[in-house]
Amino acid sequence: MAIEIPPDDPPVDGPHAHPSGGEPDAAAPGHRRVNLISRSPTRHCTFRIGQRSGVWFVTRDGVFYGDYLSQAQATEAACFGARTVEAQGSSARVLAGSGEVVVPHQDARRKL
Predict the structure, then answer these.
(1) For 38-45, what is the mean pLDDT?
(2) Over 2-33, what HEC string results?
(3) 45-78 pLDDT tens trace
(4) 67-79: burial string, b at 16+ Cβ within 10 Å, e else
(5) What is the DSSP pairing of strand 32-35 with strand 63-68?
(6) Domain map (residue ranges) of the chain
(7) Residue 60 and residue 17: Cα distance in Å, rounded?
(8) Which of 16, 26, 85, 97 is the most exposed place for a label (fewest CB within 10 A)?
């Protein structure tokens, strides 16, 4: 996204000028071009751990994430996924059981 800014200051010349001698994308005459970096809003993910027909499963925002043979494996996978999401700049939480108990996922060595 580019925004045109009216010229308050004279154009930059000298050592701080663009190496090509001009602007890479020229703005309208009498205006400077500014490129803004767009950021996506912080995303929140919810990992849920459950059991169905003797198989433990994990979902991420209601979408299948994986099947596991034990509650410990499912919890470990959900916590790993939550930490990965947080490492990418978003927020995450892990919920377990029908009561949706919050599972602390920051502690990688948590015992069940």
Answers:
(1) 71
(2) EEEECCCCCCCCHHHCCCCCCCCCCCCCCCEE
(3) 999 999 999 999 999 999 999 999 999 999 999 9
(4) ebeeeeebbbbbb
(5) unpaired
(6) 1-38, 44-103
(7) 49
(8) 16
Tell whether the model's pLDDT for residue 15 goes beyond 90.
Answer: no
CB 62 within 8 A of CB 50: no
Separation of alpha carbons 70 and 65, rounded Å: 15
Q: What is the DSSP string of 64-90?
A: EEEEESSHHHHHHHHHHHHHHHHHTT-
Instruction: Give residue for tokens 């703005």.
Output: 27
Q: What is the pLDDT of residues 81-100, one digit of tens each?
A: 999 999 998 999 999 988 88
- The conformation of residue 62, written as its DSSP 8-state character, comes to T
Confidence of residue 112 (pLDDT cuts 50, 70, 90): very low
For the question of whether the overall pTM of this predicted structure is more than 0.70, the answer is no
